[in-house]
Amino acid sequence: MKLLSYIKQWKSAAREAVAQASIAAQFLSFIHITDAYICSTTLVQGPSMLPTLNYSGDVVLIEHLSHRLGKLEPGDILLVRSPVDPKKIVAKRIVGMEGDRVTYLTEPSYSESSRTVLVPKGHVWIQGDNVYASADSRYFGAVPYGLIQGRAFLRVWPIGDFGYL
Amino acid sequence: MWSIIREAFDKTLLVAKAYGILHITNSYLCTVALAYGPSMIPTINLTGDLILAERISPRIGKVGVGDIVIVRSPVVPRRVVTKRVVGMEGDQVTYLLDPHNSDEVHSIVVPRGHVWIQGDNIYNSKDSRDFGPVPYALVEAKLLWRVWPPKDFGPMQHISR
Predict the structure, then answer these.
(1) Could you report the predicted ipTM of this complex, rounded to two decimals?
(2) Cβ of A83 and B135 within 8 Å?
(3) Which neighbouring-strand residues pair with B60?
(4) Which residues pair with B139 in a beta bridge?
(5) Where would I find the beta strands (DSSP E) of chain B?
(6) Which segments of B40-146 does DSSP mark as H helices, in order?
(7) In what helix (H) or strand (E) does residue A68 lie, and over which residues does it extend?
(8) Percentage with pLDDT > 70 across chain B
(9) Alpha helices of B100-151 — where are they, by DSSP H?
(10) Are the beta carbons of A29 and B24 separated by less than 8 Å?
């Protein structure tokens, strides 16, 4: 008898738990879809985009719409999955789209020698603003368009540097 | 009138929730792919097979040689292609340069962070022999189980060389 009443209690508690969990799941999936497909934030750090982005870290807003609509242009700062380390995401600037000829210094610290490449179809050429300390397309070649994760458009932290990129 | 609007809103919300769940399952867990074309004959039919593909293995690094994977094309970014992984990073891959006409082979070491993909039908397949090794991050899913046509229902053959 007592067992039956316990089961009844648990049933209603379980039903309420499932209802709350489903609300939480819907909320999380809404947040996730916004984060993955519309706008998200990232901490970007490292020397490769000096002086545009600080060495010790900037929080930037990333939008995920432009690259899906094909509206990227040279000069955009992109978040790109690294072709040499699939677990890493890097922030670089587009220097050339497919079909463009890109000229770059092969050894900026030591010599004036430069090389010109044609960016292949379906790829982009990305470089860090700080050519002296940046592993980018000059090192791993043009990057397939499918590796682009988003475009950084607004810096939100530090507050002194708040503004469009 | 307001009750109609409210009902419409509720129904739309329900559809949006269902779509959201379906989309997240499709993008992160498991999806059904229609694979067609001549490049994977005889493994995949020319006119198209429906195959269950899971998206978890590429994220946890469990893609290896012999797996059939769905890869975003490095040449046409809106397109996905289905090919077999022939070499992981560091592997030495040997392939025929022109299988129709000669026996000439070319050997290459797959660079770090990349995979070498080839179609099973090397006579009619655009793959890494044309566009080079593909960055691992472009691997989207691994084919698991063929669902249609019914006579071919079953697991995808895993071939390791």
Answers:
(1) 0.83
(2) yes
(3) none
(4) B71
(5) 30-35, 49-54, 68-72, 80-87, 92-96, 105-109, 114-118, 134-135, 139-148, 154-155
(6) 56-59, 128-131
(7) helix A66-69
(8) 98
(9) 128-131
(10) yes
Straight-line distance from the first to the last Cα atom of chain A, in angstroms, rounded to the nearest whole number: 69
Report the alpha-carbon distance of residue A20 to residue A43 in Å, rounded: 32
Q: How many helices (H) and strands (E) does chain A have?
A: 3, 10
Return the pLDDT at B127: 93
Contact A27, A130 (CB under 8 A): no
Rg over CA atoms, chain B: 20
Provide the residue type at B35 as one letter: A
Do the chains contact at B113 and A84, CB–CB below 8 Å? yes
Q: How far apart are CA A57 and CA B6, in angstroms?
A: 47
pLDDT value for B158:
65
Q: Which of A83, A121, A90 is nearest to B114 (CA)?
A: A83
B92 close to B109: Cβ distance less than 8 angstroms: yes
Q: Is A137 helix (H, G, I), strand (E, B) or coil?
A: helix
- With cut-offs at 50, 70 and 90, classify the pLDDT of residue B161: very low
Q: Which of A118, A115, A113 is nearest to A101 (CA)?
A: A118
Contacts of A122 in chain B (CB under 8 A): 73-77
Interface with chain B: mutation pick from A87, A97, A125, highest number of B CBs within 10 Å:
A87
Cα gap A71→A152, rounded to integer Å: 13
Q: Are strands A89-96 and A123-127 parallel, antiparallel or unpaired?
A: antiparallel
The two tokens of residue B66 are: 């012999």
User: Model pTM?
Assistant: 0.86
